Amino acid sequence: MTDPLDSHLESLHLPYTRQHYTALSKVVGERSWSCIDYLENLIQGEIEERNTRSIQRRIAAARFPVIKSLENFQWSWPKTIDREKVQSLFRFGFLTGELPSNIILVGNVGLGKTHLSIALGHTACLRGHSVLFTTAVDIINTLAAAQSSGRLKQELARYLKPALLIIDELGYLPIDKQGADLLFQIISQRYERAPIVITTNRTYKHWSSIFNNDSTLTSALLDRLLHHAETIVIDGKSYRTRDDIHDH
């Protein structure tokens, strides 16, 4: 009798129920469960397992280089950081509000901008949102290659589809006109549709130097990016040089 049942449960994609219905049936008497109790426990287990698999898929799809959390962020290291403002981001109003808001994390290298962006993205995955983490250079290289092979539209879709796009390290390397135009396409097409988190080591007045000193394009890009945006400025010395500082 169990073989047809196993087959039915497999065809219905109910792996938890298939694996546990026998074991749970043995405790029905011990726990004085009704048929409804028994069924409820199986369904609850199925839901929890599906949620776990969904979270794992979202985290894998996000392509985080490492996993970071807000809990292990070193608040005491930056000289200046608005802790309350950062923590408020994890309520995800910028993602779920009526109009999505971009988040720009500005500061020198080694102050935790990438850490915070990954923590934000990872928490978003846990809460059911699709996320993609990438660097500005990777976006430009990928889209430039796609453009030369006639696949730009398909590749652009990868950056437009996620509920949250995280672009790390904008400004660490200069971007030529083609790269700036490609990045502009992503920002303009996500404008007022879905938010972007950007980490950068350059304040806005220096962004023209990132984009080949093209002030017109830079102005148009900032206009869209900052129309609905929250800027977090982090100031201080690089966390990576902390040990060197303590040694001296």
From TrEMBL:
<dbReference type="InterPro" id="IPR003593">
    <property type="entry name" value="AAA+_ATPase"/>
</dbReference>
<dbReference type="Pfam" id="PF01695">
    <property type="entry name" value="IstB_IS21"/>
</dbReference>
<comment type="similarity">
    <text>Belongs to the IS21/IS1162 putative ATP-binding protein family.</text>
</comment>
<dbReference type="InterPro" id="IPR028350">
    <property type="entry name" value="DNAC/IstB-like"/>
</dbReference>
<dbReference type="InterPro" id="IPR047661">
    <property type="entry name" value="IstB"/>
</dbReference>
<dbReference type="InterPro" id="IPR002611">
    <property type="entry name" value="IstB_ATP-bd"/>
</dbReference>
<keyword id="KW-0547">Nucleotide-binding</keyword>
<dbReference type="GO" id="GO:0005524">
    <property type="term" value="F:ATP binding"/>
</dbReference>
<dbReference type="InterPro" id="IPR027417">
    <property type="entry name" value="P-loop_NTPase"/>
</dbReference>
<keyword id="KW-0067">ATP-binding</keyword>
<dbReference type="GO" id="GO:0006260">
    <property type="term" value="P:DNA replication"/>
</dbReference>
<feature type="domain" description="AAA+ ATPase">
    <location>
        <begin position="99"/>
        <end position="233"/>
    </location>
</feature>
<protein>
    <submittedName>
        <fullName>DNA replication protein DnaC</fullName>
    </submittedName>
</protein>
